[in-house]
């Protein structure tokens, strides 16, 4: 997924010299080929995220296409007000890439972990939020982001767990992507975003009756598709490496609660910070969103 | 100079500010009165812009980062013909467009500010873009001395210095007050000149109400050939021009009643 991201940046920069990648002194290794091929289109803004977003807004106003890169603990969380006022208020087409979302930096602690970013950005008008689950979704998300006239927050989580889709494909902003239809009497599907798509894929192999839906576009969300989904299901189970407050589970249940009567079970981070240091897998377990913990939850819901 | 720009004389601008403040029963009067001469000189003699299209792509940018002084900019925009009499008369009425802090959606205003420490970075981004595109456009950014409490301002200053953005001129409106008191009692700025200079800036310090001095300092800074960004520390008086407001920080928040409005207008006529 990271190689794909790196390649997209190089391709875009070559195609359009108005594309500028701004990094807050992050992305070690990730931008090597961009820096080699298009050195003038990479600017290390230093460890100064607030200024980076303001500068991106200024560059966008005079015709550039800035892509602002940082860890999602900083972009968007540290600079939420700059994103709101300098960029979204004026509908400037700036792309924010928040990398390492969720518990990717499991050993580094809370400062580098990010499980509130979707919730915090969702309430900002004009901002599109995309959360790809594998490299094929990333390709399309970046395509949508680059061709959007509005600002975009692109959330990148754990990225080394392989693909779920088999090839590049097209979807539009707001689309829910059906990967596997539910079987059996009781129709239940997992709806996953970002890194949890891969987890959902694994879970579906263990629970063959479960359906699987990917949700890379968190805002906008196609309400019609959500309602249709609800009408064909007895329950939905959302999976996200993010707080259950304000994330994917909230997005779907906000619609379901007014327009349908099915249950939306929300699996995600239960409104708490990580307690301990450990591997990525360890942290998922601590938060009850590793494979085994989710298995138990699903059995309960079924 | 366009004939309209000749209307940008301090007394007229102050009159417009007082009219708006009285009509809208607004606060932040002192914050606007100290900016009058700075705005007048920049619009009159230094900013290149299209009188008929304030958001023309090729314009120079005049950014009010210190959004609390927005009435001074409205007052100039009225003289330039970008705002009409009615907009001043109906200031703060329900459903109108002009807000109490700078809003970028109004043609002529460049950024949304008032939450402080934003406009400087946006201005630096604009100037960086112009530099990359090799245009000769200039960016003027007005910041308050109280605003310089914001860390983001210093992020922008160090970035501008590092990248030799010699197409910007930051003007610090140094009126020595912020919302709750004197700057010296809150975050001391005795070393401001040296601090900004140390970030690779050309800095000069002037009387921010002396139009000749403002004019001369801008000319001198932009004629330097050392590639450094520029900064003017403009010593100003909060509430300038109205005796009962000058250096009385309560006029950050006080509003005009009919009697005080009339007194203030009388003072302008003297």
Helix content of chain B: 25-40%
CATH level-1 class of the largest domain in chain A? Alpha Beta
**Radius of gyration of chain A over alpha carbons?**
19 Å
**Overall mean pLDDT score of chain A?**
96
- Topology of chain A as a string of helices (H) and strands (E): HEHEHEHEHEHEEEHEEHEHEHH
Looking at the overall shape, the CATH architecture of chain B is 3-Layer(aba) Sandwich
Main sheet properties of chain A? 7 strands, mixed
| Uncertain stretches of chain A | none
CATH class of chain B: Alpha Beta
* N-to-C span of chain B: 28 Å
Span from first to last CA of chain A? 33 Å
Total DSSP helices of chain A: 11
Count the DSSP helices of chain B: 11
* Pair of chains with the largest interface and how many residues each contributes: A-B, 25 and 28 residues
How much beta of chain B, percentage-wise? Answer: 5-15%
Principal-axis shape of chain A equals globular
Q: If you consult CATH, what is the topology of the largest domain in chain A?
A: Rossmann fold
**For this structure, what is the CATH homologous superfamily of the largest domain in chain A?**
Thiamin diphosphate (ThDP)-binding fold, Pyr/PP domains
Helices and strands in order, then pairings?
The complex is a heterodimer of chains A (302) and B (270).
Chain A: H1 2-15, E1 19-23, H2 32-37, E2 42-44, H3 49-61, E3 65-71, H4 80-87, E4 95-99, H5 117-122, E5 128-130, H6 135-146, E6 152-155, E7 177-180, E8 188-192, H7 196-206, E9 211-214, E10 217-219, H8 223-231, E11 235-243, H9 248-259, E12 263-269, H10 280-286, H11 291-301
Parallel strand pairs in A: 1-2, 1-3, 3-4, 4-6, 5-6, 8-9, 8-11, 11-12
Antiparallel strand pairs in A: 5-10, 7-9
Helix pairs in contact in A: 1-6, 3-4, 8-9
Chain B: H1 10-24, H2 29-33, H3 36-46, E1 61-64, H4 70-79, H5 85-89, H6 119-132, E2 139-144, H7 151-162, E3 168-174, E4 177-178, E5 181-182, H8 183-186, H9 192-197, E6 202-207, H10 211-222, E7 230-235, H11 258-269
Helix pairs in contact in B: 1-4, 1-11, 3-10, 6-7
């Amino acid at each position: 997924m990271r190689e794909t991201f790196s390649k997209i940046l190089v391709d875009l920069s070559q195609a359009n010299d108005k594309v500028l990648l701004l990094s807050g002194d992050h992305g070690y290794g990730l931008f090597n080929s961009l820096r080699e091929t298009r050195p003038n289109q990479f600017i290390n803004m230093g460890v100064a995220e607030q200024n980076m977003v303001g500068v991106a807004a200024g560059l966008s106003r005079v015709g550039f296409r800035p892509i602002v890169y940082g860890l999602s603990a900083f972009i968007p969380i540290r600079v939420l007000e700059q994103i709101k006022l300098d960029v979204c208020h004026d509908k400037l087409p700036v792309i924010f890439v928040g990398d390492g979302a969720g518990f990717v930096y499991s050993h580094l602690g809370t400062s580098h972990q990010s499980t509130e970013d979707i919730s915090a950005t969702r309430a900002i008008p004009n901002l599109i939020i995309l959360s790809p689950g594998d490299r094929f979704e990333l390709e399309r998300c970046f395509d949508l982001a680059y061709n959007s006239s509005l600002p975009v927050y692109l959330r990148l989580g754990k990225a080394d767990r392989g693909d779920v889709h088999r090839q590049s494909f097209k979807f539009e902003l707001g689309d829910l992507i059906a990967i596997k239809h539910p079987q059996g009497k009781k129709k239940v599907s997992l709806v996953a975003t970002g890194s949890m798509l891969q987890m959902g894929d694994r879970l579906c192999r263990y629970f063959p009756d479960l359906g699987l839906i990917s949700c890379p576009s968190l805002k906008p969300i196609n309400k019609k598709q959500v309602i249709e989904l609800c009408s064909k299901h007895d329950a939905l189970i959302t999976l996200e490496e993010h707080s259950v407050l304000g994330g994917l589970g909230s997005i779907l249940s906000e619609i379901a609660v007014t327009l349908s009567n099915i249950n939306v079970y929300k699996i995600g981070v239960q409104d708490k910070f990580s307690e301990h240091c450990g591997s990525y897998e360890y942290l998922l377990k601590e938060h009850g969103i590793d494979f085994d913990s989710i298995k138990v939850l699903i059995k309960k819901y079924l | 100079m366009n004939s309209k720009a000749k209307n940008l004389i301090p007394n007229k601008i102050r009159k417009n500010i007082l009219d708006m403040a009285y009509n809208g029963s607004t606060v932040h009067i002192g914050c606007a009165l100290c900016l009058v001469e700075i705005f007048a000189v920049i619009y009159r003699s230094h900013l290149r812009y299209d009188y008929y299209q304030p958001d023309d792509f090729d314009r120079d940018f005049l950014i009010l980062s210190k959004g609390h002084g927005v009435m001074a900019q409205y007052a100039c925009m009225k003289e330039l013909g970008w705002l009409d009499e009615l907009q001043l008369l109906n200031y703060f009425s329900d459903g109108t467009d002009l807000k109490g802090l700078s809003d970028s959606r109004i043609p002529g205003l460049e950024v949304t500010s008032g939450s402080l420490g934003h406009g400087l970075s946006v201005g630096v981004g604009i100037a960086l873009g112009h530099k990359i595109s090799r245009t000769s456009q200039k960016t003027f950014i007005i910041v308050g001395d109280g605003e310089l409490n914001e860390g983001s301002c210093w992020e922008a200053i160090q970035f501008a210095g590092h990248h030799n953005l010699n197409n910007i001129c930051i003007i610090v409106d140094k009126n020595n007050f912020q919302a709750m008191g004197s700057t010296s009692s809150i975050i001391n700025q005795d070393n401001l000149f040296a601090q900004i200079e140390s970030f690779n800036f050309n800095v000069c310090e002037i009387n921010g109400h002396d139009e000749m001095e403002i004019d001369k300092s801008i000319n001198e800074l932009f004629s330097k050939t050392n590639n450094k960004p520029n900064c003017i520390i403009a010593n100003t008086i909060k509430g300038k021009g109205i005796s009962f407001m000058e250096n009385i920080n309560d006029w950050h928040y006080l509003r005009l009643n009919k009697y005080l409005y009339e007194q203030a207008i009388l003072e302008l006529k003297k």
